[in-house]
Amino acid sequence: MEKHYEDDEIEIDLKALFFELVDNWVLIAVSTVLVAVIAFCISKFIMVPQYTSTSQMYVFTKSTSITNLVDLQTGSSLASDYKVVITGRPVLEQVIKNLKLEDETYGSLGEKVAVTNPANSRILEITVTHPNPELAKLIADEIAKVSGTFISDKMDQDPPSVIQYGYVSEYPVSPNTMMNTVLGAAIGAFLAMAIVIISFLLNDTIMTTDDIERKLGMHVLGSLPLEDVEYDGAKKRRPVRSLDQIAKKSK
Fold first, then answer.
1. Tally of CA atoms within 13 A in the half-sphere of 51 that contains its CB
2. Is 68 helix (H, G, I), strand (E, B) or coil?
3. Domains of the chain
4. 13, 22, 131, 170: which one has the fewest Cβ atoms less than 10 Å from its Cβ?
5. What confidence score (pLDDT) does residue 198 get?
6. In sequence order, which residues have a C-beta less than 8 Å from that of residue 64 and are 6 or more positions away?
7. CA 96 to CA 135: how far, in whole Å?
């Protein structure tokens, strides 16, 4: 015996869904404003501002000739090696010792340091992110000095030259209060609309004849209007009776 299965098709009335969202605009607006205010307060009063400072080093040995392609490639390779050395434990622990950073460990300081090598260059940028802008500059400069000495002593290489020390930043790089507020508003609106849409899709209450045809697959042949009846001198709306009730009353 063969069994035939038919895929259930879920039809969504986009027009009805749109009007459902419009009817719940107050909920959406309140959710948008509320989450935006929460995001603003968290960014403004709870999150700790972070500042950055960047020192730059130039990887170029004394014996390097600028016209020698092999030397240029060697310098680029050294830049990649130095990135690993700069963020290594010996360098960072020496920086902690020199600056007497009692609250820092190798792991915590390593999370605040980023070393980048811009494309097609032998420039190393040591960027330190810290809540204290002055301390961020001191750490970036000290890392540049200590790593240069370490490279000279341990790797038997000419130390990279420090071509720029860090600056004390006046403005924090994070948090971005405006962006967080806008993002919070978007999240609030999305959550409210998601709740409205899910409630609309899960609502199987039959309200109109169109709902009968769409949800039950039945065709409506006719409908009876509400009747006006007299009750204590005032009109009262009486609900529509079913066909069975009308037939019984007629008997």
1. 17
2. coil
3. 14-46+175-205 (no CATH), 51-163 (3.30.70.1130), 210-250 (no CATH)
4. 170
5. 92
6. 71, 72, 74, 75
7. 12
How much is the pLDDT for 43? 94
* Two tokens, residue 213: 């045809």
pLDDT at residue 161, as a whole number: 86
Average pLDDT per 10 consecutive residues for the chain, totaling 251 residues = 46 80 94 96 94 90 50 60 88 94 92 87 90 96 93 80 92 93 96 93 72 67 60 52 51 54
Q: Distances from the Cα of 181 to the Cαs of 44, 174, 208, in angstroms?
A: 10, 13, 42
Alpha-carbon span 59 to 73, nearest angstrom:
11
Measured CA to CA in angstroms, residue 193 lies from 14, 91, 114, 115, 182 at distances of: 14, 52, 40, 43, 17
The first and second tokens of residue 44, run together, are 């403004």
Contacts with 92 (C-beta within 8 Å, 6 or more apart), sequence order: 106, 109, 110, 113, 143
